[in-house]
Design goal:
The protein is mainly α. Helix content is 47%, strand content 8%. The chain has one domain. The chain is globular, with a radius of gyration of 15 Å.
Length: 146
Amino acid sequence: MSETTMTALRTGRALVDEELFDSITRMVMHEKGRDRKFAEEVADQAITFVFVAATSTVPMVPSDDVDEGLHAFILHTPDHHAFCQKYAGRFLHHNARPGVPRTVEDVTRSAHAMKAAGFQVFDARWSVGDSAFQCDSDCGRPYGQQ
């Protein structure tokens, strides 16, 4: 008889307190007219994205959906700053790159990096649409590169 071991995947939600997670979720709901389930998934993935980007060895690019959560997280400036300091040891800036579209390969690579780090990934939130903007850099450096 074989024994199956289930490994619980980590979540971005578990990296912040519930009050902050709820505030990010509500901001996505309010700003983008999203339902709670979508907003919670996007908030979770955005927090995970920042955590993994802090130590990743590959350039990280959020999907269109995850970028909504990332922007909401960043607008919680003191909390986002403290999170970056705690997990990256520095502030991870967020620079939009107008006119540079996200590619499936870039976004997929980011989702794979999150999975490799042991995090739950909501695959439906990692698609690439027709966004004309790509938010993928930290002060001119791609996320994940020092």
